[in-house]
Amino acid sequence: MTLHLFRLECLRMLRDPRYLALAVVAPIGFYLLFATIFGGGPTQPGELKGTVEIMVAMAAYGAIWGALSATGPRLAHERSSGWLEQLRAMPVTGRHLLTAKLAAGLAVALPALVLVCVTAVVAKGVRLEAWQWAALVPAMWLGTLPFALLGVVVGLLVGPEAAFPLSYGLYMAASALGGLWVPPARLSSALQEVAHTLPTYRLADLGWRIAAGHAPTWADLGVLAAWSAGLAGLTVLVQQRGPSRGRGRGRGRSQERRARPAEDGAASALSAG
């Protein structure tokens, strides 16, 4: 059943124009823009080329939104519409559902990550050793786990009206403070201290270090693991509060009736699977 839910969640996200625009098209467009403007300057010995540094930042940027958007807004909507209650009539536990959500969040983060790297190779001639590609993509992909967990927490806590703006606001703030928009070295010392505590910076730093031919630091791994553990614990605490439909204000019965056909179609897809 978890596999069927996972497949359904992935198909729903890959057909969502908002996901494609924000998690795939936008990071590729930003990469081409920033790499063209800032990527051609000379570098000091030991520094990454601008085209490589920006590639890693924009790959992280897209992957983070893929993980967040597949969990937070969708989970909040499903709580509000009653879809989760319909799932409880099937042999689906909360653990199955959250496992499928997290797996789907990780899965749909991968296209953004890979396609930004492919764009960098094709359009800007970025070249890394084979072992660097083999380490960079899986390491950054697994590093999106805390963002998928963050999305689950958001989806369990807030209603559908607030879930998308809250998720997007957290995403933009963490990306800016984490050095994805401005190289961390150009941030003030106070902002650098903040950046070093954020999973956005640590995710990008994984990629920057691998692209430079170095192993990830224990600080990178430790901060990402700490965020993952903390958000996983928070997810368990929130889930133990008991079932909540989280219906947003102003949602009428007519909206619920409009939501049911889509839910019934999804239930049929699960049964067919």
Automatic annotation (TrEMBL):
The residue ranges flagged as biased composition, category Basic and acidic residues, are 253-263
Q: Where in the cell is the protein located?
A: Membrane
Key word Membrane present:
yes
Q: Which residues cross the membrane?
A: 20-42, 54-76, 97-123, 135-158, 165-182, 218-238
Give the molecular function GO annotations: ABC-type transporter activity
In this protein, which residues make up the domain named ABC-2 type transporter transmembrane?
5-201
- Classify the protein's membrane topology as the record does: Multi-pass membrane protein
Cellular component per GO? Answer: ATP-binding cassette (ABC) transporter complex
Region Disordered: which residues? 242-273
Gene Ontology biological process terms in this record? response to antibiotic
Alphabetical UniProt keywords? Antibiotic resistance, Membrane, Transmembrane, Transmembrane helix
> Would I find Oxidoreductase among this entry's keywords?
no
Kindly give the Pfam families that the UniProt entry links to this protein.
Answer: ABC2_membrane
Broad class of the protein's primary localization? membrane
The molecule here is called: ABC-2 type transport system permease protein
